[in-house]
Design a protein that fits this description.
Length: 609
C-alpha cells in the first residue's frame, strides 16, 4: 500500500564509514554546534563511544542513537560501527533511517567497510550525502578520493538519482564543512542544512494503526527491558495497551510503562510519539530484535530485519584448568549459557548452539574480532571460560564444499610486496589488483579464503615492520580452494604444576619464544611457549638450580631473561591449534592443551626437558 503522508518535522539519518574515518568525532561537533550543550560546558571527546572497550580501542562497537535540532526540525542521528565484524549493527541501524551520511577519509579513500555499508544503503534505496573528511591531513587527496567514490557507486549499480548525491568536504575535528575545497568554512551548518534538505522526511500511511519495528534492545535497572525502534505508522502514547508480534506470529500483550525519545546523546520522557520518530518503550519483557509492536485492535507484522549469515564459529566452555576459580567469580556452565543467550538478543548477527555432549557452546558470528570483543566483555564481568580456535563455517551447494572468501586490501611499502604476495599465495590467496602510489607505497588487492586470514594479521605487521595497513571485507562463498598448513611451529607444554622459575625459563629460551614470566603459576598441559620446531615438546618450567658445595667463576651470575610480550586475546586465539584452547579469566589469558595430562595426549611428545 502506498504511503500517503510524511512527517516534515523529522529526519532520520545514519553516519556510516570505514573504521577510524571520523564518524564519532563528527557527531561530537554536531552536538556542539546544534546547541545540545550550553556554551562553555565541558564534554568528553567521542561522547557516543560510552563503553570502556570503545574508549580503550578507539573504535565504535555498538550502534547508538542520538538527536539534534536544526531549523526547527529534529534530526535523529545513528552512529554506526566501522569494523566489518560489527556489520550486523550497521544493518540494524539502516532499518531505522531514510538517508545516510557516507564519511570517507580524504587520504585513505573508500575501503572495504565503505563498500559494505554503502552497498547496504543503496539496496535499501536510502539517500546518500557524501562527506570527504579529514581534508586537513598532509597527505589528503580529496579529488582522487571523490573519483574513487564515484567509481564505487557505479560498481555498486547506483541509480541516476543516487549518483547525483551532494558532496561536502569536512574536517570533523575542527568542526567545519563546505561544498567546495575553495570555499572557506567556519562551521558544520552546511552539513546540517544538507541533511534537512536532501534526506526525505519519514513517510507513513495515515490510515494505518500504530506499528513499530524493534531494531535494538536495552536494559535499565529501574525500567527493565527497553525496546528501541522506529514508529513506522500511527502514533503511540504512554500507558497504551499494545501487542508484540514475535517471529512465529505469537502475540504477547504489553503495556507501555514509559515512552522516551532521544534528545542529544540522552533520552527524555514524552507522552506522545509521532510517525517516523525513533522511540524507546519500557514495559516490554518478552521481545526480540525484529519483532513488531503494534496496536491490539489491528495487529499487523512488519518485515523482519535480515542480516548476513555468520561466517566464523568458536567453541566456548566452562574453565576446567587446575587454576579454576582463583581469579573469576562466574564459573558455571548455566551462567555462561545465560550470558551468551543475552548476547544473541542484543546482537542480531550472533548465533549460539549447544554442543552434542552438552559440555560447551558453539558461538557463530561475523569474525574473530567480534569474538574477541565478546570475550573481553565477559572476562570483565567476572567470567572464567575456555575457548577454542576460530573456525570458518563451510557450506555445501550442489554437492560441492563452499567456503567464505574475503576481499583483502593492503597498503604497504613497495619493498614488502614480495613477502606479502608469497605468504598469501601459500594461504590460497589470489592477487586481483596492484597499484603503485607516490612515496614508494603500493596498494594490493587479494581474494583470500577467510580461514587464510585467521592468525595472519600479526604476521603481516611483523613482515611490514608495523607500517602496513590491512583491511578485509566478506565477498561471498566460493568453492573450497584446498588445504594449507596454518602454523609451522609446535608448542612448549608444561609437564607439571608449580611456579615458573627463572633458571628453568633461561634454559628453555633456546627452544623457542616463551609466554610466561618467573613466578607465574603453571600446570600440566599449559602451553608456556612456542617451540622452534613443528612438534610439541613437554618441558619443566619449574626446574630449580641444584645447590652444591662446589663453587666456580660465573656460577652465581644473575639470570637475565628476554622480555616477554604480554599475551592478548587476539594473539591467543590466533595462535592455538585444533588440540589447544585459550583459558580466559578476568586477570589472565593462558594457553593450554584440550587434554591436560601428557600421558593421555597423542602425538610425538619427547621426554621432558
Amino acid at each position: 500500500m502506498h504511503k500517503d503522508a510524511v512527517n516534515e518535522s523529522l529526519r532520520n539519518v545514519a553516519i556510516i564509514a570505514h573504521v577510524d574515518h571520523g564518524k564519532t568525532t563528527l557527531v561530537d561537533a554536531l552536538f556542539r554546534q546544534s546547541g545540545v550543550f550550553r556554551e562553555g560546558q565541558e564534554t568528553a571527546e567521542r561522547l557516543m563511544d560510552n563503553m570502556d572497550l570503545e574508549r580503550e580501542r578507539g573504535i565504535t562497537i555498538a550502534a547508538k542513537n542520538s538527536a539534534i535540532s536544526w531549523r526547527g526540525i529534529k534530526i535523529n542521528i545513528l552512529d554506526t560501527p566501522g569494523h566489518a565484524d560489527f556489520g550486523g549493527e550497521v544493518e540494524r541501524a539502516l532499518s531505522m533511517v531514510d538517508g545516510v551520511v557516507l564519511l570517507v577519509d580524504a587520504s585513505e579513500g573508500p575501503l572495504p567497510q565503505t563498500r559494505f555499508v554503502l552497498d547496504k544503503a543503496l539496496k535499501a534505496h536510502l539517500h546518500v550525502i557524501v562527506v570527504i573528511n579529514k581534508i586537513d591531513r598532509q597527505d589528503a587527496r580529496p579529488q582522487e578520493v571523490l573519483s574513487e567514490i564515484y567509481d564505487l557507486l557505479i560498481d555498486l549499480d547506483a541509480d541516476e538519482e543516487q549518483l547525483e548525491c551532494p558532496v561536502l568536504y569536512a574536517d570533523g575535528r575542527a568542526g567545519i564543512a563546505s561544498r567546495s575545497l575553495e570555499e572557506r568554512a567556519e562551521n558544520l551548518h552546511v552539513l546540517m542544512d544538507a541533511i534537512v534538505d536532501e534526506v526525505p522526511p519519514p513517510a507513513y500511511r495515515s490510515s494505518e494503526p500504530f506499528q513499530m519495528l524493534v531494531s535494538d534492545l536495552s536494559y535499565s535497572d529501574f525500567l527493565g527491558r527497553l525496546a528501541v525502534g522506529k514508529v513506522m505508522h500511527g502514533s503511540v502514547r504512554g500507558r497504551d495497551g499494545l501487542v508484540c508480534l514475535g517471529e512465529d506470529g505469537r502475540q504477547t500483550p504489553l503495556n507501555v510503562s514509559r515512552l522516551q525519545v532521544y534528545a542529544g546523546p540522552g533520552l527524555v520522557e514524552t507522552d506522545h510519539a509521532q510517525p517516523g520518530d525513533i522511540v524507546v518503550l519500557a514495559g516490554v519483557e518478552d521481545v526480540h530484535i525484529g519483532d513488531t509492536i503494534c496496536s491490539r485492535t489491528d495487529p499487523k507484522a512488519l518485515p523482519r530485519i535480515t542480516v548476513d549469515e555468520p561466517t566464523v564459529s568458536m567453541y566456548f566452555a566452562p574453565n576446567t584448568s587446575p587454576l579454576l576459580g582463583r581469579e573469576g567469580t562466574v564459573l558455571q556452565s548455566s551462567k555462561i549459557r545465560e550470558r551468551l543467550q543475552k548476547e544473541t538478543m542484543l546482537n542480531v548477527s550472533m548465533r549460539v548452539e549447544e554442543t552434542e555432549n552438552k559440555e560447551g557452546f558453539i558461538v557463530k558470528g561475523r569474525g574473530e574480532f567480534q569474538m574477541v570483543i565478546l570475550l573481553e566483555t565477559m572476562r570483565r564481568e567476572g567470567f572464567e571460560l575456555n575457548v577454542g580456535r576460530p573456525r570458518v563455517i563451510f557450506r555445501t551447494e550442489n554437492g560441492r564444499k563452499m567456503e567464505p572468501i574475503e576481499h583483502l586490501f593492503i597498503e604497504c611499502d613497495d619493498s614488502y610486496t614480495g613477502v606479502i604476495t608469497e605468504k598469501l599465495a601459500k594461504r590460497k590467496g589470489r592477487m586481483v589488483a596492484y597499484e603503485s602510489h607516490q612515496h614508494n607505497r603500493a596498494r594490493l588487492e587479494f581474494s583470500v579464503p577467510s580461514r587464510g586470514l585467521l592468525g595472519y594479521r600479526d604476521e603481516f605487521l611483523t613482515d611490514t615492520r608495523g607500517t602496513g595497513i590491512l583491511n578485509a571485507s566478506f565477498s561471498g562463498y566460493e568453492e573450497y580452494r584446498g588445504d594449507f598448513p596454518d602454523r609451522h611451529t609446535g608448542s612448549l607444554v608444561a609437564d607439571r604444576a608449580g611456579e615458573a622459575v627463572p633458571y628453568a625459563l633461561f634454559n628453555l629460551e633456546p627452544r623457542g619464544n616463551l609466554f610466561v614470566r618467573p613466578g607465574e603459576p603453571v600446570y600440566e598441559g599449559m602451553i608456556v611457549g612456542e617451540h622452534n620446531r613443528e612438534n610439541d615438546l613437554n618441558v619443566n618450567a619449574c626446574k630449580a638450580k641444584k645447590l652444591t658445595n662446589m663453587r666456580a667463576a660465573g656460577k652465581d651470575d644473575a639470570v637475565v631473561l628476554t622480555p616477554i610480550l604480554p599475551m592478548t586475546l587476539e594473539r591467543a586465539i590466533q595462535f592455538v591449534k585444533d588440540d589447544e584452547m585459550v583459558e580466559v579469566t578476568p586477570k589472565s589469558v593462558r594457553l593450554r592443551k584440550v587434554i591436560l595430562p601428557a600421558s593421555q595426549r597423542k602425538g610425538d611428545l619427547r621426554k621432558p626437558v
